[in-house]
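User: Fold both of these, please.

Assistant: Here is the first one.
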Amino acid sequence: MDDAGRRLPRGRHALPPEQVARAQRERLLAAVAEAMKTKGYAATSVGDVLKGAGVSRQTFYELFSSKLDCFMAAFDAVTGLLEERLTEAAHGDGTPLERFERAMRAYVGTLALEPGYARLFVVEVHAAGPEAIRRRAAFQGRLGELVGALLEARDEQQRFACRAVVAAVASLVTLPLVDGDAAALDAVAADIVAHVRLLTERGVLAGGRVESAAP
């Protein structure tokens, strides 16, 4: 993630305290994601995060109240990045389906570029407890709304179809992320786009009409 691994200059420096704290926070977020990529949420300790970030325990507790607090901050960082990338990709010219395809590829591309954060977001969130799962569900809801607007869903059945697409993506990217398989992630994007194209051709996501999805 941008600047997440940035190191502070050695020795004396004139950086303002807020910049120092921001850099330390970014390093801790990167470290918690990296540690959980290899050890998982339950087995990762605050000490593992400190070692990866190169900061003191005192600094950690000045910024976060617990491992879970740090985890949730990293979760918010990756979901914020995903929403930003999807929104950027969806803007511009093209049909709704073309813009959806750009957004879908931006989504899986971001996951592929940030494997530590991606695993934290997709896999480890289930081990982090109820609050993490609720926050994940809220994010999925926002994505469902984004996809619904993008594909011009005009009634509840169409909006449900968009939510189902988002849920399918969340499930289908899990194994490729666990395996570190970028090609399989690309295949998920292609398969989802093909499925949405089929829904569009059958009228399930076209012009506000709701028709049978049967051939």
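And the second sequence with its predicted structure:
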Amino acid sequence: MAGSSDGDSTAKLWALLGGIASLVAIVSWFGFSNAQELQAVLNESSPTSSSSAPSFSSPPDEPSETVHIPDSPEPTDTDSDDPGWDDDPSGGSVQPESETPSPTPDPAEEAFKAVSAGDCLEVFDTGRGGDSIDWSADIPPAPVPCNIQAAGLVQVTSTTDTTCPSGAGKASWTYTSAVSGETTRLCVTRIYHKYYCVLGKRVGDNTRLGAMTAVDCNAQQIPAKYNRIIHITGVYQAPSNASPRNCALGPNDQTQYLAWLVNDDKLLLCAKIYQGG
């Protein structure tokens, strides 16, 4: 019996050693180098009463719940009575397009465009523009009767011509707007009245007429381009072969007159030197 007991003990010992060897092999396979690391892992994996419930995924052989998505989302509620908003097909609302602001008006352009053919304007060339006309007003003044007695007076003959007639007593008055870029052109013809003065320039034995000018007969200074003040003595329908002799007021009138044909040679303008050599 003693031998049998010793055999059982030996068998148990070998079984224990085998179990220890298996445990060591398992620990080595998981990568633990000692029993403390194994104990720490076991402690961490043990569930506690304070840990959150684990989550589970649906098994692959069970279909997940299908959520239905409509083809078109339902439109959100909008105030259809609000004129400032339009319904959008996607369910939202969009602001209306803002209106393009009107360009700032140009008062000078409006004044030029308000002039009509046939209007008479009290404007004239000051003579200070040299070879160009320097109008006495920046914009057309209000029309006046064409038969008034005035030193400087013109009649508008066209507001649509691209080129105005030229010659003594004819001119153009143009304005180009910086706002619209458009040019307004007034074609004008001078209206002369006797007893008023215009500017002239002596060139040799002749006197050049500042046909669109007007000046105070007693002016102390005149523009540099001119050197004479001319006093108008008469305005007549031009006869054939018109000359200064047609300006005489009678057979005994020995006045040395100056004379020019103006306005397409239709008028005879008679004058004499008021100031200047």
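The two ends are 174 Å apart (CA to CA).
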